[in-house]
Structure formats: structure tokens, C-alpha cells
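Appendix B: complex inputs.
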Amino acid sequence: MPDNEAVAPPEEPPPELPLSSARRVLVFLGQNRGITALLAVMLAGVLFTPQPKATAPFAVAMIQKVTGTGEPGGEGPPLFLTGNLHSSVLYEYAEYGILATGMTLVILTGGIDLSVGSVLGMAAMLFCWLHIAKGYPAGAALLGGVGIGAICGYANGWLVSRLGLQPFVATLAMMVAARGVAKVISGGAKISPGAFGWYHIQGGDPAFMAWMTYPTFGGFLRPVTVLFVVTIATVALVVKYTRFGRHLYAIGGNEEAARLSGVPVGASKTLAYVLCGALSGLAGVCNASRMMLGDPEAGSTYELDAIAAVVIGGTSLAGGRGSMVFTVLGTLIIGYINKILSINAVAEAYRLLAKGLIIVIAVVIQGRQKAK
Amino acid sequence: MLRRAIPVLAIAVVVSALVAAGCKPPDTGVTGPTPGATGPVAKGKAPTPGVPAVPAELKYPDKYECIFDADCKWLEGEAQKEMNSALSRFAEIDVVYAHNDPSAHGAFMAAQQEGKGREKTIKFIGIDANPDEGLRYIREGVLSVTFDYQTGAAEGIKAAVRILAAEKLPQNITLGTKIITPDNIEQGGEYVPPDAREGWETVDVLDKGPLPKLPKAKYVIGYSQCNLGEPWRIRMNAELQKAAEAHPALELMMKDAQNKTETQQSQVREFITQKVDLIIISPKEAGPLTAPVKEAMDAEIPVIVLDRKVEGEDYTCFIGGDNVMIGRLAGNWVREQFPDGAKIVELKGLMTSTPAGERHQGFLEGLNAIGPGGAAPAPTAGGPTESKTETGPTPAETKKTG
Amino acid sequence: MAGSPLLEMRGIDKWFGGVHAVSDVSFDVRAGEVHALVGENGAGKSTLVRVLSGAVSADAGEIVLGGKTLRLRSPRDAERAGIAMIHQELSLCPNMTVAENTALGSEPTGPLRLLSYKRMNDHAAQLLDQLNLPLDVNRPVETFNIATQQMIEVAKVLARDAKLIVMDEPTSALTEDETDRLFRIIRDLRERGVGLVYITHRMEEIYELADRVTVMRDARWIGTANAADLPPSQLIEWMVGRRIETLFPKRDVTLGEEVLAVRNATLTAPDGTGRLLVDHVSLGVRAGEILGLGGLRGSGNSELLGTVFGQFGSAGSAEITLRGRRVEIRSPAQALANGIALLTNDRKTTGLVLSMSVLHNMTLASLGRMGPPGLISPGREVTEAGPLRDRLAVKAASLDIEVSSLSGGNQQKVALAKWLMTEPDVLLLDEPTRGVDVGAKAEIYQLMNDLAASGKAIMLITSELPELVEMSDRILVFHRGAVTAELRGDDMTQEKVMAAAMSEVAHHA
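Resulting structure:
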């Protein structure tokens, strides 16, 4: 180790050139990759969703119109510009967003949580078992769902900070275990109203779940979506204005330096996992409400989407950098991409290709951003 | 600055390119049974032998337009999302053909949550007919029709009794199905016997003559189930146990392989060591389980294979359902209900698994009025050609309760 | 054979950014010679040796080995030329066998170009034989202890037919017996005509082993002489001798009562050997006192500070009394709660969180005071940090920029600010002016004096001897984990400190 160190860059920042407003917009976009990516996706949405009653994507249809080829048939603006599509995305991806919120906390510390999908499924099952099968009031069942998520989170946190296991390994084990518990709760069957004679709720839609999925707010937003927004806003405040939040950034940035500055590393990490687990539980309740039943397979492979949402938004997997705003962007990006692919009935293989490529591109962009 | 923006724009370009590429008219052609690889919740099955070669590119006929299709991986949640997209896009949807009941239910939920009341105007088709799922949906009015994907459990026990009584049975037995609608559900649905296929016997062979009496007082049957994670397999277990109760001499020893091939292999070998009288197995995969089954046969223990096959011919008896036929019956049903044509949304199961491929192929056969073992005239543009040139039994003709 | 120059380095110059690490140094080694290279921390010998081993390339100068001018672009080039480097961190693969390690990179092949284990094992056995090391060449290297591993490394180096071997402080982890064994091997190598460059801080080793000694100081070559002709005092003067600068502020020292008393501090090495990095050290610091801890790297002074701060958890232990009250300190959080702060000597790995802003780094250890319990008020942070930034003259465009974009000296100031913000009673400073320019150093010295004057107790470690001698009221010198000397008043000279740092003197309880 040399005793002499390389001297870092000079102390005054380089003089700034005056910029025209167009260039300033470009600079802003360049520095805020998440927003740029979201705009790019929305542009793709406008161009590539079809008009009502048409099959060809809007851009193709326009070209066909201009060149006089192809069948006419579409009327009106492309589907991407209708409110219904956006309301759908916000509804369907609210639970992914809640998962991604918890995942961000854990990733900020430099860890990861692979069990969020399984915990979602387990919480959905428990919620339905308590509410539909056993007849407990929805509020109590919700607490049960969130609670069991928190317990799993605590187990994850204990394995990581007490036993020193790699987060990947510990949460992988939890992923398998939680899925097992989800299947044990009802012996592998789905829990839905009237499925079995002894269930407390027979037939019809449980009131709480119906309310969660009904477009209450202006006929556009559903309580599930609002729950996501409220959740992520709350967590954002926590991360910014509490000691706990600051500790997360410190631990992710330089765990040893944080420890030597008196940060309670073990306790903070554990709390991050507990919150992630609890939020996964909450997402499970949302999922059950959306489907009006508890599915033991619910949430399988959701963890990958959650991680993708966090990463694409701009939070670094290495820890120490990122924010909830990024996660909102990432969730929206993932949601819109999925929706565009779905609206166009793109074949499964191409969908997987598309998502894989997008993740790679997003991470490459991030990587170049870091290389300073 | 611009250089840094390029990779971001690349996202838009990539998405667009793939959307354009993957965005074909939803009429995907089918060329014979797709090779089976099992998916997460799949019910994989080796391709049905003896299925006659279908005309190379089977498409949706013009009258029955598939306006939207998607791979929902057997999952209800995915089906709900895909149906949502379909609903946003299309104002007119007549019928939804889902490859299993949960997907159909998910589609129903999507229509219901749309808030425009379309769940009442669209007809939903499901498959499986589990008592606590599909049948319930029929009763609640969610599904217009579903088809019983029989587990073969009861038939398996019948076959076991015959084999233990030293009767000779054909090696491959195919099961029929039941068409279940709200009208006939109280009578237990309408039974449809299996199609005749080369190398296969239909299931009524098990009913030829009365069941023999078993010579010994007690028989132990080892039963290896590949997993208990799917509701359909839980149903199979329940039916197996119920059928076995009717024969007090049979004692059923069940082992759950928890979806692990190695576990199932050692379970079969354990049965051999324990010298059971007969083995019933529903294998996770064909290849790895072939050897243990052969070892059992060599040890003079008869093996009945249910639902999924092993390779080769070293087993006593295989009993399984016919997904192509089920799909075809669904297609026939659509033709019956919509003689003037219909706009169809198809929500497929995991297309890398055999049942999904077969249910899709069968559906196309039904829509094109191709009966079992016969080719219909190639579908030409316009004009009803179906009703007169049909071969094979239609659902309306066979009336036999299962 | 001895007498002909094997290696000649002429006019080597190396800059790292704005720092002149090696300045026009010429250095030669003869075949069959052990040549000790000596200098205090930062003198430039590590850099010189890295140039020689190909790890960095010189900005000027040339290297001639056996008459041939070498162009070294990578360590592999150096290896091929016959120069081998044995670092303190050994470069063996722990799970591979002895034979595999010695053959690494040049594995012998048999017919069909397949690995010939027989040839590998035979060759390894041969080498070990030459070193008088009867070892089972088939055992994985990790099963041997550190000392033996070091010798295996020597064997590995010999396998490459090294003509010149550089050893960097090889005995730092060895016991006396193991050191003797190593020396026997070194003498053996010398007999066979190998040239050895031996870097060490230990006087006794220099005089026991070396034929010639070269001293570097402040990046320059100071002198070379035969060990037999060089008295220790001259050696030390070469290492240390410089005009005492007058940049150190004067102060009046009024000492108060004892603030911190440490009894029986011990720290066990983490490598499982049971070696003590801090060997039952006791000391005390009074209010208003600056206690200097002298000693070279690895001598135990840094480790002592870390032990007091609770940095090492259960590996370290000490009886600590603060203003007469016994306290338990097992973690940094506890130390902070008791008013003790430690500025570590490596800000990049243990001092700062480079991804966070200047502001956030400054407040990291004092978050409890930044708002209602559990919460942080950004306004409060800025009000607390602003004055400190001014007091330390941290040059940063704003408090919100990432601390990684600051210069080294300013980063150091941010780290210092963090600890000052905690308003400690006891301030432990490990190399506080590392990487700081002269002007800023003066500011920091003044700051230290002010803090002492206000009644704080300060312990200071610095590898710059003038700084140590001028700033401290009292100096304890460490060597091999124990205090070898206590210097006060006129006895606090650079020479005496260096002498105590390099020798084994019977230490007191």
C-alpha cells in the first residue's frame, strides 16, 4: 500500500457554460435517467398501441394511412391516450409498487430480498383464510397479513445481521419456505368465498375486497392504487427525515465507516428487512383483493419485477444510492412496458426478450452514470 | 450529452421493435402437438400417440376470429391482467376460451371490475372442473361451460382390481370427459367417451364385464404422486382414496414426491423393496422415472401410470385424459352457440407445456369442424362449410352419463 | 560473485498526481548481497519497490538488471526478467497444494500437453530440499502456518528462477524462531548469488542480516553504506534528520486532571495465531494534554486507539476509566456515548461514506442531536454543519455535493468535522493531517491546540515525526504491541522516537 495517494481533482468546479433552454432540458434529462426512461416508454406507448378497433399499432397505422396501404378501421386516438389504460396500469401494478418500496429499503443497505413474492403469496393466503374462511373482520385479517410478512422479514434480518449470511442466500431460503407455508395454509387449494361449505363467507364478493378494487376516486383510481401512493410517500418521508433512513444510506455506502460512526448496523438492517416483509404482506392483501381470492401461487416471480423496478428507476444494487422517487419511476416503467406488450398481444417469448433487454440497457445506463 | 441520451432512447426503440415483431395477428398456426416441457403449475403429458396428422397450418376460420390471445401460464392473476388489456382494446367480445378454470375466473373478474357489465354478456369457457372451483363457477354463473379433465383415479382403481385379479388390460387407456353447463350440472354433466385412437383403448374397456373378485384378503398399493401443490392433484388424491374405499381389500400407501424427481425415483424403489402388490404412479417427468418403473416391472410388480407418461413400453397400464379432444369439444361448443360467427379471446396455459398446446390445437380443430381421425375440407374464404362435412361424434349425439 | 552489480536503478522519478513520491533515486544491488532498504512511512521506499516489481511505471529513470536495460510494463515482465516480490500479503492460493502453488503459471506438462503432476511434485520437492524444508508437497497450502507459508512463497519465487528477490517486512507476523529459520534461508540464497532487497523497520534485523543499507527520506536517496560501517545513530540521523520547521504554533500547557485512564489494553490478532497486536498497554491522558503515540506501522499504536474506541469488538479488551468512572466500551456506539471520538487513518475505507454528501457525512455521528428523537431536521443539520465547515475551511462548492468529489485534504477535514461535531471529551486522532496541504495543516494544528486548551484530552498518532514531536506534550513510543519508551520535555526528539520505534527495549508493565 503506497503511503502517497493520488491527489483528487482540483478544488474549484469547472466554470459553467451558459446553456440555451433546449440544451438545459437535455442536461436535465441526461442527469435524470429515470424520468427520461419513463418518457421514452410513454412515447413508445403512444406510438405502439393500436387505436380502438384496429389491430396495427398507431404508428404503423399512421404510416399506412399516409402511404395508402393496409386496412383502415381504427378511429380515435391510440389506446395509450385513453384514461382507462392508465387506470388499469395503476391498478394492476400497485402491488408491484408496494413490493418495490420495501425492496428499495433493503437494496439501499446493499442487500436484497428474494422472498417478497413468496411472502406476498403467504400473506394473501393468510388474509383470505382469516377473513373468508374464519370470518374475522377485514381489519384484523389485514393486520394478520402484514404481521406475518413482518415476521418473515425479521427472520431474514436476523439471518443477515446476526448470522452474517449473504442476503441473497438467506432470502432465497425464505422464498422457498414462505411458498411452502402459503401452500400449507389451505392444503394447496385456493381460498375463495364459498369454496368450502364451512367457510364463513359464502358466495358474493367480500365487502372489503370489493371496496379495494372499485374505482372510487373520480371513477379513475382504486383504493389499492391510493394505498400504494400513500405507502410510498410515507416511506419516502421516513427515508429522508429519520435517523433510520439516514442509517440505511450510510450502511449501504460504507458499512464499516458507518459502524465506526456509531450507526447501529445490525439493528438497522434488520428493521429494513422487517419493513420489506411487512410491505410484502400488505401487497399480498392487495393481491387477494384484486383477485377476490387467495391463491397459493400468488406472487410467484414478482420479486424479479420488484427488483427490476428498483434498478431501472435508478437505485444502485450496490447500496447507498437511490430514493423512493426512483422506485416510483421504475414501477411505472415496468407497468407501462408490461401493459404495452399485453395490449399488443405480443407473444410470450418476445415479451421476455424485451424485458430482459430493457433491464440490461437500464443497468448499463446506470453503470455509466456511476463511472465518474 | 446527446451521446448519453442515445442509450435511453434505445429503450424506446427496443420496445417498439419487439412489439412490432411480436405483434402478429393473433392467429398463431399450429403444427402438431408441441413437445412437452413442464411449467410451474403445469400438467404435462407426453404427446398422445395415434393423433392423426393435422393439416399443416391450422388457423382460426374466418367466421371465428381470435381477436386477442395471450399466454397466461395457467395463472389466474395473469389471466386477469391480459383480459383487462383485451377489454380495453375491444368493445365487442363474444366468448373467452381459457385453458383452465382459474384463468376463466380471472377473466371474469376483469370483466366485472371493468364496471361496464360485460361479464354478463361475454361467455366464459373453462377446463378442469374441480369440484370446489370449476363446478362452483358453473353454479355461480361465472362460467358458461367447463370440461372435466378427469384425473383417472377411479379408473385407476378399477384397473388395479382387474390387474390384481390377473386380467389382461390394454396398455394405453384414454379417458373421456364431461361437458358441464349450468343446465346439466345437477345431472353431473354430459359424458363424452374418448376418441378412438390407434394404439389406445377407450376407457369403457374397464367396464367390460363385472369387476372380478380379488383372490387375496389384502393388497398393498404403493401410490407415488409427483406433487400435492396443484388443486387438480389434490382432487386426484381425493378421488383415488374414495375409489379405494369401495374395495376393502385394497390398502393405499401414498407418498408425495414434492415435485422432486429424485424423491420420486427413490419412492418407487422403496415400494419395490417393500414388495407392494401394485404401484400407481403419476410421474413428474417421463425420462427419469422410466428406469424405476422398469425395475418394478422386472420385480413382477404391476405399474399403473396416471396422467403423465413414462417412456417406452415397460409399464402395465397407462390411463390419461385427452386434451385435444377437450379442446375440440370446446370448439364445437363455440360453433353451436355462435352459428353466425364470434369474436374470441383465447387465454392460454403455459404454451411450453403439452396440455396447453393440445387444448389449443383441439380448439382449432373444433372451430374448423375437424373430427377425430378425419380431415375436414380445407377452410376456404367465406361460406359455411362445417355442418355438412363433419365426421366423428358431436357432443349432442352421445348421451351417456359417466 | 559478490561485488558485481546485479541490479541498478538510476535516476528513478515517480509522481502520483501532485505528490512527488520518488525523486531522482538511484539504488543498486549486488549479486549475493542482502541490501536493506530503510525509511520511515512515506519516505518513498514502497513506491520505489513497486517500480522495480513492475506494478507501477516510473516517470523517469532506468532499470538495469544483469547489464540489460529492462522495460517493465507489468509485474509479469518483472517476473520474466527474474525479479520477484514477496509482499506482506502472501500471494499463494490457499486451497491448492504446495506443488501446485510453486508451479503456478508455469505448470509442467507431459505428453499430450496434460499437466504432469509427477514433474510438478518432484520439482517442488527439489526446491524445498534446497531450502531445507521437509514438507509434504501434496498438502494444501492453507494447512500450514503463516511462517511456513512465507517459506513456500520463497520456494515459489525460486521456482521462477528469481535473480533478485524483494521482501517487504517479512518478519512482521513471525515469531523469533520462525524469523531465525527465515534468516537461514535468506543467507542460503545469498550464498547462491541471489540479490535480496530487504525492507524493514527493525534495527536488530538490519544489523543481523544486511550487507549494505540504503536510507530514503522524503522521496530522496539519503545514503548507502556497509552495515558494518554504519553506526545506528548515523542510520537514524539519516532517516530523520531534517530542519525542524517553525510552523507549529506555540501554546501554554496547563494540564488538568486525568480524563482517560487505560489499563491492560490488549488486542488479539484475527488470524488465529494468538499473537497480540496490543500487548497489555496502560496509559493515561489528562485534560488539556496532547499525548503522542509514536511507532511505525504495525507497532500497535493505531491498534491501541481502535481498542479504546471499541472498534474491534471482542477481539480487544481494556479497562477504561473516564474521569474516575469505569466504563464498558465494546462498540463504537458505546465509545461515542461516552464522549470518545476516533478519527481513523484511512478515510476512504473507514472514515467517510463516499456516496453521501458532505453535509450528511459531517452529521453522521451526531444524528441524535439533529431533531426530535428519531427524526432529522435538515435545517438543523445545516446550522450545525455550516460553522464547522467554516472553522475547518472546507473547500466545497456546497454542502450537498458528494464527498467523493472533494480533494483528499478537504475530505480529511470533513472527517475531522464529523468527530468534532460530536463534542467529545477525548479525541483520538490517527494521522489527522494525512494528505492535507501545508496551509491546511497549520489550521489543523491550531485547532488541536484550541481543543486542548478548552480541556479536551487528545491522543495523536502521526507518521510525520516533526509533527509528533512538536505537537505532543508527551510521547509514548510503540514497538511490537508494547510501549518501549516514554519521552518528555527535551527527550522528545525525532531521533529518540525513531530509535525507540525500531528497537526492542524491555517494556515496563
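Residues 24-53, 376-402 of chain B have pLDDT under 50 and may be disordered.
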